[in-house]
Specification:
Creatine Amidinohydrolase; 15 strands; binds cobalt (II) ion; alpha+beta; metal-binding; hydrolase; three-stranded antiparallel beta sheet; binds 2-amino-4-trifluoromethylsulfanyl-butyric acid; four-stranded antiparallel beta sheet; Creatinase/aminopeptidase-like
Amino acid sequence: MNAFLNQDKRKKEEKIGRNDPCWCGSGRKYKNCHEAFDRKIEKIRLEGHEVPHRDMIKTPEQIEGIKKSAVINMACLDEVGKQIKEGMTTLDIDNIINEVTYGMGGIPACLNYEGFPKSVCTSINDQVCHGIPSKDVVLHDGDIINVDCSTILNGYFSDSSRMFMIGNVSDEKRKLVEVTKECCDLGLAQVKPWGFLGDMAEAVHTHAEENGYSVVREIGGHGCGVEFHEDPWVGYLSNRGEDMLMVPGMCFTIEPMINMGSADIYTDKENNWEVYTLDGMPSAQWEYQVLVTETGAEVLSH
Ligand code: MF3
Ligand code: CO
């Protein structure tokens, strides 16, 4: 039944008349709006590439909504950056996220998401991602921590994360944090319309590997904006020309998890959330939420 409905929807989309209003909601005739765009995508699809569905292309109104959500998202991480220090607990970080988010009229997207019990993810050292804030987890001198914040405002989602270094961090860990940021920046530089997600992924994993690091395979980025996690799934191990075509209006995250040692990970069986490196070595992650524009990329949240 679902397949039938989808097919029906697809046919309707394809049959749009040249003089009909465009599917994008601009109010313009299809022939003067997205017709050439759709033809270009269809040509690339027929060449064997994965291409985005119309649902993945954000309208100007949606982009405005995501940007307003992102203002709160970044304010949360700015405030964490001001307050974070040795001796603090990860529950204190959760409290900051709640204060800033609710104070600015938003809702933390993590809270109750598929049963996640807190408002933010806090992942320390060998924790790869999805660390659960707790009064029992204290920040120590030399720790590196990822704070991954997601925000809902008026139904629009923003998602970004940053690393913080506590006190005197070893040169090895500092380098991991810095190289991981460089991976995101190099990936970002590859985001442009009519390129492929693999162009971005290649830049990310090449830089990580050149530095002797590995990239987590199982957990990736995602489309983001109208829902928390939308298609496409975004990996960082593919190569130039592979994975989905990027077109203006697509919004997704660049959030590679880079391990100092091997790429292997496991999930804590007690809570089914917290992910760790199998070898116990440190892992780092930064996350940017990016929009593909007519000319390149715009970072919406970081
Ligand atoms: N914020 C994470 C991401 O970047 C998702 C966390 S899901 C949660 O996609 F439930 F753990 F919050
Ligand atoms: Co994300």
